[in-house]
Design goal:
- By secondary structure, the protein is mainly alpha-helical.
- It has three domains: about 80 residues; about 70 residues; about 30 residues.
- It contains eight helices and no strands.
- The longest helix has 29 residues.
- The chain is flat and about 60 Å long.
Length: about 190
């Protein structure tokens, strides 16, 4: 957990990198409070790295916002997780078909990229290796890229999201599931 002192130190770093950064430090609610609320759940080592990465971006004229810093933490974590690009994943899928013995086009050769959960989920959503038409690669590639992009975008959103938002969504989801269950239970009783 990152402390308010950690946030103050990061803000001082940002201020030195960007002389035009003038956070509001006075008042009942100030910039430290806001940055701590939006970034305090992130490990300080991750946060320091993300702040440095944001500040080092070429062409950046203004200090990074808390959202940009949070997004950078997620981008770095996705790199750490080894999430391949969509092109790398597709190349491995097609390569797995080409490596199958005896001309078998069922696919499924194992490589670290094909074993990655995001790639496996995209293949599953396409219907599995057997549903991929090796002879129609352009259409299949476009289909895969759309699915893969959707999965990675959703995963990025989940990882970047504030814990309070995650808790809110989960509570709301459980409430809606309960309401749906009541409706379906009521419908099944009226049909009996």
């Amino acid at each position: 957990m990152t402390t308010r002192i950690d946030i103050k130190n990061l803000m001082a770093f940002i201020g030195m990198a960007f002389p035009n950064f003038k956070p509001i430090l006075d008042g009942e609610i100030n910039s430290v409070d806001v940055f701590h609320t939006l970034l305090g759940d992130i490990d300080i080592a991750d946060l320091k790295t993300a702040v440095q990465a944001c500040c080092a971006e070429s062409g950046r004229a203004f200090a990074p916002s808390a959202g940009e810093i949070r997004g950078m933490v997620t981008k770095i974590n996705i790199q750490v997780q080894g999430v391949p690009s969509a092109g790398e994943a597709w190349a491995e899928i097609i390569g797995s078909f080409e490596r199958m013995p005896g001309g078998n086009m069922a696919g499924g050769g194992s490589t670290p990229i094909l074993d990655h959960p995001v790639v496996r989920e995209a293949i599953r959503q396409m219907g599995g290796f057997r549903s991929i038409d090796y002879d129609n690669q352009m259409a299949e590639r476009a289909h895969f890229l759309r699915i893969y992009e959707d999965i990675t975008r959703r995963e990025f959103t989940k990882q970047a999201q504030l814990p309070a938002v995650t808790e809110f969504v989960e509570a709301r989801r459980l409430t809606i599931e309960g309401e749906i269950r009541k409706l379906t239970d009521g419908l099944s009783k009226t049909q009996d």
